[in-house]
Every structure is written in structure tokens, then in C-alpha cells.
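It is worth pausing here to work through a concrete case rather than discussing structure prediction in the abstract. The textbook approach is simple: state the sequence, then state the predicted structure, then interpret. We follow exactly that order.
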Amino acid sequence: MIYNFASFFKPIDNWPTTNTVKAGQSVAVKFSLNGDRGLSILAADYPKSMQIACDTLEPLGAAEKTISSGMSSLSYDPLTNNYIYIWKTNKAWAGTCRQLIVKFNDGTTYLANFKFTK
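Step two, the predicted structure:
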């Protein structure tokens, strides 16, 4: 079964837009699958992120598993029908760009690009 992914929701603008974020800030990754599909929807070791060239968006290395902020992990809000993952970015990413890769256990993958400022 393929999930019915609509898009990422604010504060993220969808690919190919590059989102600007302060390095070290947590980013709320919000999306809907048109209902509660449980919390085991992500493929193993996802979401991931990788550094990309800010001008060409070409990959500059291997993808790394993301870190969630604090005690947060993937959650589902039945009031908004949204999943939420709080992605903890790294202060050392200032001046670079990265691509967030969200892969689901149905095999589908969705991307969002970010430019990190100081």
C-alpha cells in the first residue's frame, strides 16, 4: 500500500524551493498521510539529510540519519491529521545547504532543501 502523502506543511516549503533556517534551530517537519497510519511509517534509519551544493543542489556526501530534538520523535496529531517530526539541525551547518530525505516504508521518498544561516 502506498501512503497518500500530500506535501510538507509550513514551516517547510516543498521541493524545489530552498528553505532558509538558522543553523542549530529545530525544524518541525509536518505532513499528512490522509489519516493515522501508525508510528511505524518511516523506512529504517530515516529521515536522513545530506549536504548539497547551494547553487546546483548536487549531493556533496553521503546521507546521515537525522537527530530529533530533545525527547521528540515522530508523533501524530489527530486534531490536525498531521504527523510531526522535530528535526534538530547542527550549528556547524551555518553557510551550507542540506537536503532532508523522508523515506516511508512503502518505498516512497520526499525531499526538502534547506540553506543554513548563522
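Step three, interpretation. The radius of gyration is 14 Å. The chain has no helices and nine strands.
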